[in-house]
């Protein structure tokens, strides 16, 4: 009887370790998808910058392409973000505990989302194309905000958690 109970406990421990590994994997890959969508956007916007800031006759076509791209990028980023939140909560609740650094990381993510969405609402949605190069640089300021916050979250995650 005792060996059977020990085997069941061992199996449960192994299952919990596997679950922890899977949660970490999904958490990291979701963060990578979220981060990667931002990096991809930088390259995409740099590529079409000349078409949206110049006097090209096909500005409307590139503006439409940008809108389609933003919808797709937003879907990837939102899915990655939601998965980061869900897996982060599960990891904290089941494995790591609710330490002060977990709350710091949560606060940083909230600040990142608030800054990003606030800047998009205030500065990006008001753009119309073609626009001046100075106005187009608002996109790059948005990425500066996003990448700075990603760096801060990663620093906290790797060095303080």
Shape: elongated
Q: Approximately what portion of the residues adopt beta-strand conformation?
A: under 5%
How would a textbook summarize the main sheet? none
Uncertain regions: pLDDT < 50 for 5+ in a row?
none
Can you write the helix and strand succession as a string?
HHHH
* DSSP summary, beta strand count: 0
Number of domains: 1
Structure classification: mainly alpha
Considering DSSP H and I runs of 4 or more, what fraction of the residues is helical? over 70%
Instruction: Count the DSSP helices.
Output: 4
Radius of gyration: 21 Å
The first-to-last residue Cα distance is 41 Å
Mean pLDDT: 90
Characterization of the model:
With 161 residues, the chain is mostly helical. The protein has one domain. Helix content is 88%, strand content 0%. The protein is built from 4 helices and no strands. Helix 1 packs antiparallel against helix 2 (59-96) and helix 1 packs antiparallel against helix 4. The longest helix has 52 residues, at 2-53. The protein is elongated.
Quick recap:
This protein has 161 residues and is mostly helical. The protein is built from four helices and no strands.
Indicate the topology:
Elements: H1 2-53, H2 59-96, H3 100-124, H4 133-159
Q: What are the key terms here?
A:
single chain; 4 helices; mainly alpha; about 160 residues
């Amino acid at each position: 009887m005792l060996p059977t109970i020990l085997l069941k406990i061992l199996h449960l421990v192994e299952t919990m370790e596997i679950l922890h590994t899977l949660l970490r994997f999904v958490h990291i890959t979701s963060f990578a998808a979220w981060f990667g969508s931002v990096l991809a956007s930088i390259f995409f916007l740099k590529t079409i910058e000349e078409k949206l800031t110049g006097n090209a006759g096909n500005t409307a076509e590139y503006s439409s392409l940008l809108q389609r791209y933003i919808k797709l990028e937003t879907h990837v980023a939102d899915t990655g973000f939601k998965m980061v939140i869900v897996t982060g909560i599960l990891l904290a609740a089941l494995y790591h505990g609710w330490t002060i650094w977990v709350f710091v990381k949560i606060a940083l993510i909230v600040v990142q989302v608030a800054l990003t969405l606030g800047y998009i609402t205030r500065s990006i949605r008001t753009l119309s194309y073609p626009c001046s190069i100075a106005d187009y640089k608002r996109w790059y300021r948005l990425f500066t905000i996003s990448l700075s916050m990603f760096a801060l979250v990663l620093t906290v995650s790797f060095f303080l958690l």
